[in-house]
Specification:
By secondary structure, the chain is α/β, with parallel strands linked by helices. It has helices spanning about 15-20, 45-50, 70-75, 90-95, 110, 140-150, 150-160; strands at about 1-10, 55, 80-85, 100-105, 115-120, 125-130, 130-135. It is about 30% helix and about 20% strand.
Length: about 160
């Protein structure tokens, strides 16, 4: 699985409260969430981001609460992947379970700037940037299958049906 897109770069310790502020979680209408994604850091982000873009961040992306809506808001905004130096563990699992690639990549925050184009190859375990190629731990087959099916629920539905 290869993902190619434009970078939006953020720093360390991006928590779930700034990814999707709690005041927007009072509704079950998930179409509201992408309109406010990353609003706690950049109030205009949702107006600038394009489908297929990639968020890049430093250490501890998705720290804070266990709200699943943080990963969903990013995915529903059309963001193709999040690449970070490290992730809050619950965010990482929520992302994969919802079909959003979360890629841990040491050195990524120094290798890219906002606006750069990068390519992620989850099978080969590399991220290609304008400043070089970075190694990542390749995703295991089952995780690539979860992402290919759009998340854990669809993955298991297909497994049960024998697809």
């Amino acid at each position: 699985m290869k993902i190619r897109g434009k970078v939006w770069k953020f720093g360390d310790d991006v928590n779930t409260d700034v990814i999707i502020p709690a005041r927007y979680l009072r509704t079950f209408d998930s179409s509201v969430w992408p309109q406010h994604v990353m609003e706690g850091i950049d109030p205009e982000f949702s107006k600038k981001v394009q489908p297929g873009d990639i968020i890049v961040a430093g250490r501890n992306f998705g720290c804070g609460s266990s709200r699943e809506q943080a990963a969903l808001a990013i995915k529903l905004a059309g963001i193709a992947a999040v690449v970070a130096e490290s992730f809050g563990w619950i965010f990482f699992r929520n992302a994969i379970n919802n079909g959003l690639p979360a890629v841990e990549c040491p050195g990524i925050s120094k290798a890219v700037e906002t606006g750069d184009l990068i390519e992620i190859d989850l099978e080969k375990g590399v991220v290609s940037t304008p400043r070089g190629i970075l190694q990542i731990k390749p995703y295991p087959v089952f995780m690539r299958e979860i992402l290919a099916h759009g998340g854990l629920v669809e993955y298991f539905k297909r497994k049960i049906r024998g697809d």
